[in-house]
Design goal:
Layout: H1 2-24, H2 30-43, H3 45-59, H4 64-73, H5 77-107, E1 111-116, E2 122-128, E3 136-141, H6 152-160, E4 164-169, H7 185-201, E5 206-212, H8 214-223, E6 231-237, H9 243-255, H10 259-274, H11 283-287, E7 294-299, H12 308-316, E8 321-326
Parallel strand pairs: 3-4, 3-5, 5-6, 6-7, 7-8
Antiparallel strand pairs: 1-2, 2-4
Helix pairs in contact: 2-3, 2-10, 3-10, 4-5, 7-8
């Protein structure tokens, strides 16, 4: 009888301990929700297929023209119109001075540099070297579905002020290899390789990183890594807080779908296909670890990457920092 009571008491104790541990699990945490959604996706084919479509739609390598065609095919006219509206001010505002940049670009003898990434991709950059030599360097990261030629305005301005310029084609863009756009997360590791490439060429290089849009978030993500002292400053224009936050906004605005369960499902697919998750691609978490001074720039009428994001990354940054919010400027238009 006593033995039975002891066994019963032990079982009750085990049940209480298990119940306590289960109650301690944060069921709203990303990890818990991800496991829950992964199980749901095994039987919910509609959820799986929608997530698979959104990931392919969003980060599979395509030119901007190909993306616009795809958007129109699926009846997502608002996104196509948004992109036209996004690009139009760029061309019309910059038109009066474009000839000056293009003339510089046409006359400049660019060196062609390349690196091989940790996962075997060949990445390309165009490098403009000062004829009389300089230890000042600027590395430029372009935006989503763009390419190195789109950094010409910034490269021209820095070159005119005595900098050597390195205009990158990020992975899955331009002449660089890669099938999946990684929204700055794996790009941060690539940019560190480019930094080291510059230092190998010029050991006393003083380097500025400059990024716009996705490139902005990429350089912010770089800031949280252990960087050589050669990196003196970072300029971040029109960047998002995280890939999760940006795609959550896109998912709601253009697809009218909630982040739970769809963003969790998308992360599972993105990890399988592209080797990263939108959740981990966080500029906020990275700038909190930064020792490099950062200038945060954003236009207050940006409807593509919300202007509220700049205040979040600015507040999170644990480094020397400044912020410039340009009145009336749209996405990537703060320099005009």
């Amino acid at each position: 009888m006593k033995k039975s009571v002891k066994i019963y008491s032990a079982m009750i104790l085990i049940i209480l301990i298990v119940s306590f541990l289960y109650s301690c699990v944060d069921k709203s945490s990303y990890e818990y929700k991800s496991k829950e959604i992964a199980e749901q996706m095994k039987s919910d084919l509609e959820l799986h297929d929608m997530a698979d479509f959104f990931v392919d739609f969003s980060i599979k390598r395509r030119t901007l023209a190909e993306k616009n065609k795809l958007w129109l095919e699926y009846g997502l006219h608002e996104i196509a119109i948004e992109y036209v509206a996004l690009l139009a001010p760029y061309y019309f505002t910059y038109l009066p001075v474009q000839n000056r940049w293009k003339q510089w670009q046409a006359n400049q003898q660019f060196a062609r540099w390349n690196i091989t990434t940790f996962d075997g991709l060949n990445l390309i950059a165009d490098v403009a070297l000062q004829p009389d030599g300089s230890n000042k360097w600027a590395i430029f990261a372009h935006g989503y579905t763009s390419e190195k030629s789109e950094t010409i305005k910034s490269a021209y301005e820095f070159y005119s002020n005595g900098y050597n310029t390195v205009s990158l084609d990020l992975r899955a863009h331009g002449e660089s290899e890669g099938e999946w756009i990684t929204m700055g997360w794996l790009d941060r590791l690539d940019i560190i390789q480019w930094i080291n490439r510059v230092i190998a060429y010029d050991p006393i290089a003083e380097i500025v990183l400059h990024g716009v849009s996705m490139g902005s978030s990429a350089v912010m993500m770089v800031s949280g890594e252990a960087l050589p002292l050669n990196v003196k400053a970072i300029i971040s224009e029109s960047g998002y807080t995280s890939a999760w936050d940006e795609f959550e906004y896109i998912l709601d605005r253009f697809f009218q779908l909630p982040s739970d369960p769809y963003m969790y499902a998308c992360d599972i697919i993105a990890k399988e296909n592209a080797g990263f998750t939108f959740h981990e691609a966080s500029a906020v978490k990275q700038v909190a670890k930064s020792n490099t001074p950062i200038l945060f720039i954003h236009g207050d009428t940006d409807s593509f990457v919300l202007s509220k994001f700049v205040y979040e990354v600015y507040e999170a940054a644990n480094c020397v920092k400044d912020i410039l919010v340009v009145e009336g400027a749209g996405h990537g238009m703060s320099q005009t």
